[in-house]
Input
Amino acid sequence: MPGPLHILWRDEHLVAVYKPAGWLVHRTGLDAGETRFVLQTLRDQLGQRVYPVHRLDKGTCGVLVMALHSDAARALGLAFEQQRTHKRYIALVRGWLPEHADVHHPLRPDDAPPDAPVQDAHTRFRCLARLELNACFDARHPTTRASLVEAVPTTGRRHQIRRHLKHLAHPILGDATHGKGPLNRWWAEQLGQTRLWLHAQSLTVPHPATGAPLELACDWNALQAHVPDAADWLRLQQQWAWHYLGS
Output
């Protein structure tokens, strides 16, 4: 059975947990073989019903919020629907992303027919650090490059960050759907693991009872003893000589 989830915040209205990579938020027929679900694990862990109000992809780790009663679920659900939340993600991507990129690129839902209307989608990107390895993945280039990137989506389309980074030709490493298989496998060998390198670093929501902003964040240094994902991200940054922009 999966172990307990690490709780970042809890009161009588909501609970925030660190969702590990590889966990689904709830059961789905699309991944019938999976056995790790945040909703069911957290319900058993707390001994009470919990209500999902947003989602993270299976491969994404980081901050996930659940409501603890129906009124809180309605309030939080409305806040997400009306885009009164602020999300910040960290991604490891192919190549050197520009210092800043503002992407307005409409997206059609993944499972929609080709003639379905597109939806507005906007993400702000900032390059945090760059890496150049003296190792050759592509014979056309003597080195291999990667970037650590901050992503702030202002709309909530499915796979929005992943698809917008693909649009910029800087897909997230480990993204089997929107990235490049050979490159993902090469990086998996360098990093010693296969995973999607996308992390929900922080989330600010209006508290369902007071309306005051509640900022929920992950500190990798504080969490590394509790969640393997945090240690993975720290090792990633310590393994090579990154150049941090602005430093």
User: Anything to note?
Assistant: The chain has a mean pLDDT of 93. Residues 70-81 form the longest helix (12 residues). Residues 162 and 177 are 9 Å apart (CA to CA). Helices lie at 38-46, 70-81, 160-167, 181-191, 220-223, 228-239.
